Amino acid sequence: MSNQTGGPNYPAANTPGAAPANTSGGLAIASLVLGIVGIIGGIFLAIIGIVAGIIGLVLGILARRRGMSRGIVLGGIILSAIAIVIGIVGYIFTGIILSQS
User: Fold this and answer.
1) Tens digits of per-residue pLDDT, 2-20?
2) Side-chain half-sphere of 66: how many Cα atoms within 13 Å?
3) CA distance 48 to 56
4) What b-and-e string marks burial along 69-99, b requiring 16 or more CB atoms within 10 Å of the CB?
5) Cβ atoms < 10 Å from Cβ of 58
6) 84 falls in which pLDDT band (50, 70, 90)?
7) Is Transmembrane helix included in the keywords of this UniProt record (predicted)?
8) What's the rounded Cα separation, in Å, for the pair 49 and 25?
9) Which of 34, 40, 91, 100 has the lowest tally of Cβ within 10 angstroms?
């Protein structure tokens, strides 16, 4: 089907399936921020690293399943995993210090 002037046919604006993809990436950004907070906070207080890391990891996995921007999601997942490791190491280090006292 072509119009009478010979130009291309464009679908109507309200055509089903023409909705833009979700590019907001809120979950991905939240995962990245929580990973950063978990690493920095985990250095000073281990519980912050573990809690922020677990929440960031869950949000990163959810964002990855929804197909959001892969770079930010991957960064958030990696930083969150590092935050969890830092938190665990902090607890082990604290246990060693307290057992020697």
Assistant:
1) 556 655 766 666 656 555 5
2) 17
3) 12
4) eeebbbbbbebbbbbbbbbeebeeeeeeeee
5) 15
6) very high
7) yes
8) 23
9) 100
Residue reference for tokens 């009478």: 4
Q: How many CB atoms lie within 10 A of CB 45?
A: 13
* pTM to 2 decimal places: 0.73
Size of the chain in residues: 101
Query: Which of these, 50, 37, 34, 30, lies nearest to 90 by C-alpha position?
Result: 50
CA angle 51, 53, 55 (to 5 degrees): 70
Contact 45, 91 (CB under 8 A): no
